[in-house]
């Protein structure tokens, strides 16, 4: 059977927005599921592009740091309606989860007062299971051999030994160095690049802006020690260094938001649990943090600021990398470096599983039971994460009523 030809007629940003808004309202299941939904919607049904082009776009977004599913959406919008289409796709896919997470930020205190803190304990126990499963699945994929398993363990030790962003950056740098030194991974990719029309000048400008912001925001925060610069730097850095999947945000955002005292550890874990139960990208967790943080601006303005700052690197990297993707993916040493980085971020997530997830989420034996049951439901019964999180919160509340 011959494959249907991609639809060549471009859509305007409004039609792109509507298409992605539908997915933003219904796409549960995390980044891997989102990529499947995108393929069904835009390759099979709408035929915006062919299978090979879609596979190459997914490969590009897996290669780049940042939340892969959101970057695939940005790339699809870019292919269909240019840079306005990229923004429309991101907004449609992200808006529902951002609204829900912001509402949760305002509603959580009232819910705690009404139902007690038991539901919160159940939510935090569920996060132990969610992150534990993520560590296991990522380790199987990204650490398939002994050298990368060792590198993950070393990266986790570095992250626990050196608190904050310095330890995370050290672990990522160590991973890149080890990948280059020992030739980790299988080397360069194959196939044709995704057909996105962006000039090299535009791409280079976006990459320069990305580097300037990544290096310059910490300098601004140090030169003018106001909370605003530190907040933007924390969110931007977290969005720029998410290697290996959205769950890697956990240690990065924990270092950026909890360690300075802007968000309490239990509120941080509860918000992360809620992010598992809403459709759309996991990075919408930034909206919750921006709304709840004690540093200004907070509230709705803080939610918008956190959301924009954490997704800004994705825009700059996707638009910046597209013109150079063919050359990058053919470079074996770059591929080895990213294999090492991916192994190191498994260690980062393992460190985050211990602190703050287990250290905050497991307080007594009922929490252990809830976490274990949630892990069984996720790993063996294959229940969706939103259902597991909701039932764990209900179970936590029920335990307090006994």
Topology (SSEs and partners):
Elements: H1 13-26, H2 31-45, H3 51-63, H4 68-115, H5 118-142, H6 146-161, H7 165-182, H8 200-223, H9 227-240, H10 249-258, H11 265-276, H12 285-292, H13 299-321, H14 325-329, H15 332-361, H16 365-379, H17 385-401
Task: Summarize the structure in short.
The chain is mostly helical.
Describe the structure.
This protein is mainly alpha-helical and 402 residues long. The protein has one domain (117-401). The protein contains 17 helices and no strands. It has helices at 13-26, 31-45, 51-63, 68-115, 118-142, 146-161, 165-182, 200-223, 227-240, 249-258, 265-276, 285-292, 299-321, 325-329, 332-361, 365-379, 385-401. Helix 4 (68-115) runs antiparallel to helix 13 (299-321) and helix 5 packs across helix 11. The model has no long low-confidence stretch (mean pLDDT 83).
Strand content: under 5%
Rounded to the nearest angstrom, the radius of gyration is: 20 Å
Q: Which bin fits the share of residues in helices?
A: over 70%
| End-to-end gap | 61 Å
Order of SSEs, N→C?
HHHHHHHHHHHHHHHHH
Number of domains: 1
Question: Which regions have little confidence, pLDDT < 50, spanning 5+ residues?
Answer: none
